[in-house]
Design brief:
single chain, globular, alpha+beta, three-stranded mixed sheet, three-stranded antiparallel sheet
Length: 87
Amino acid sequence: MEGGQPMVTINGHTFYEEPGSCGTCPFLMTGNTDSPISSPSDKGICIQWDETHHTWANPPRRCQKLFKQAFRLYNDTGQELVITRKE
């Protein structure tokens, strides 16, 4: 991405910055179509980890680590980062 805003694509979802809360993460599906965060009691499903998270919660440490590495390694390369989970 030449001269534009830095971005990283992880599993088909575009991140323009590291999420500061679960509610601002593209992986969290809340069912709310108006805005990413509507009320402090909202919960959503994290489609990356198949877990329920509050919208206001800090991203789990594994996510913070993932985002930091992704932005450091894949920023503006045009490559998509694919994360899989071990079952």
